[in-house]
Amino acid sequence: FVIYNKVYFCPNLLPHNRPGHDWPRSPAGMLAAGHRGGSGGFQRVKRGWVWNQFFVLEEYMGSDPQYVGKLHTDLDKGDSAVKYTLSGEGAGTIFTIDQTTGDIHALRSLDREEKPYYTLRAQAVDMDTNRPLEPESEFVIKVQDINDNEPKFLEGPYTASVPEMSPVGTYVTKVTATDADDPTYGNSARVVYSILHGQPYFSVDPKTGIIRTALPNMDREVKELYQVLIQAKDMGGQLGGLAGTTTINITLSDVNDNPPRFSKSIFHLRVPESSAVGSAVGRIKAHDLDIGKNAEVDYNIIPGDERGTFDITTNEHNQEGIIILRRPLDYETRKAYTFKVEASNAHLDSRFHSFGPFKDTATVKINILDVDEPPVFSKPSYTMNIHEDTQLGTTIGAVTAQDLDAGSSPVRYVFRNPPSDLDSFFDIDPVTGTISISELLDRESIAQHNISVVATKVNNPVLTSRVSVTVHILDVNEFPPELAIPYETYVCESARVGQVIQVISAKDEDLPMSGQKFSFRSPQEGMNSKNFTIKDFGNNTAGVVTLRSGFRRRTQEIYHLPVFIEDSGLPVKNSTSTLTIRVCACNSEGALLTCNAEAIFLPVGLSTGALIAILVCIVILLVIVVLYVGVRRQKKKETLMTSKEDIRDNVIHYDDEGGGEEDTHAFDMGTLRNPKAIKENLFRRDVKPEAGSVPRPAATSQDSADIQNFITERLQEHDGDTSAPPYDSLATYAYEGEGSVAESLSSIESLNGETEEDYDYLNEWGPRFKTLAGIFGDRSESQTDVTSTASTTTTAENKH
To answer: Taking burial as the number of CB atoms within 10 A of a residue's CB, which of 124, 371, 415, 628 is the most buried?
Structure first.
């Protein structure tokens, strides 16, 4: 046991007979200890705490606490004056100490794999005062291991692969088991591997756990998957050791050790003769027991009597051989084909060449099936030529089709359905296939007709064939030649004899334009023409040649030259055109200066300056006449002021509050005056008149006396009214009179009138109402406008 400050070795206190409690010796090599003051065989060693280790057995299953060891100090006299305390890992919960005796016990079962050791601190203190008698010291309690954990495969189950046909001893994989027991104590953690299931195919190394093949030539095609059970046992595999197992799934990977094989030696196929070129007409397959790329098969046709009619390709998805048609089939020509097909592996493995050739062959027999086919035309297309003047009903050609089937059905011909406009020019015989003209042809309108003919079998109208027919319309010389363009020809006054003044050419609507030949001449050649002639250059052009000189515009300005043109077609067509030749002035180099009509006036002896003067006089006279007419019209339309619009404008601009009697500059009252109505010795209304100087209306007639009296009274009232408006404003009165033919002149009542009245009687009221009569005499204005204008005009009249 361990004592504080002094250590004694007491053999009788050590648990010699308890497993796991071998007392470790101190570093000083302490042999024995006894009571204080003892002698004889005891050796006293004086020192501090001695580092020692206690051991406790793991997984203790007893009912009493497990005894661990004892602490004692030489200060303990056995009188219970010393108290032992314990602190550190597990103190009080896992380990406990008797305060009086110093015995240490474990309260519960311990697991080394959970915690292999515990570090604690012990101290001796005074029982009464708790005063430490010696410094605290540390010691370790180790948990002694027992074999309580089996080996475990932490990475299992395992998956591995090895090529098929591998030799014995080929490495497959490695397994590893771990044991949680203490590898430094006994054989609890020493593991040995063995195979429980999987022999005789595989073996395992008992120490390393490496899996290897144990049987040669394992064939994947026979068995692909193997399940191996591996055991790991501790205690070196001895009896009583604990064991763990794991499973290894081993797959044999494929190698190319099998050739492709056809399931039968002869394949029979039936193919309709109507099969399209490029279509698949059959499938064959060679089976390969391998998988993946080792099962890829290449197919080839061994050259024979198929004559390139068929080809074969490989379907990459299912490795089938697809037979492709390369040429059209015809049952009537050939009814069967026979050829051989070879299947071989695409990827070979040299290790297995000794197994034999990795290919196989099979025979393919193809029988052609007869199909009811549409008629076949003798040509893929037809071309026909016909002149445009061919008469109606003329046969221009024929199409021919026949049924090549064994039944050889009759054939009927029609134009395509529905027929086009181009087909309407022709008819076709439904039995013979002859094509004739049904309408007149015109090459200049349509030079080529493209029609389509359909051939139908009588016994099966559904089967039809179509062929195109091209009809070229040949040209017939039916149009005469004419000048290519309308020429503007002139001859200089200084032209010489034999000079070419114009080169002309011709055109013809007939074909061909490039191959036509035109000839030119003058029809006046036999009539002693003295001015011009036509010279044919022989290249479809001609020149206009002068026969004399001295052309003068004053003598003759324009000449007409007939031109005779003839083509080379059959029948020959010709025409006569006329060239207009003007005489013009040219410079010394022959360049055109003028071709105007000046020469017409030259014979009367007038110069250019005289002509210009005459024209200027004529223009001046025309201007004078226009101005005179305008002034006359303006006088007829002129009224009191320039226009009615002016009157309205002045009234609108006058719509402001007056400034009183002193405001004589706010408005220009002169704009309201009619200059024609101004007379001398009349008073101005824009200034205050002198008393007694206001003019009084003179009596015009006995009949207007009542009006004169009414106006006189109103003027007197206005002159005496101190609250009257300024003198530049308007005072309006309404007076109907007695028996007036004009009835009321009130502007208010005039608005209610729906019919226009005749205001001619206003002309009889004297010169003061002349302007008013002129305004109301205008029938184009509405009644409302007339009333407004009359009021404004009256204002102007009063101002005057």
So the answer is: 124
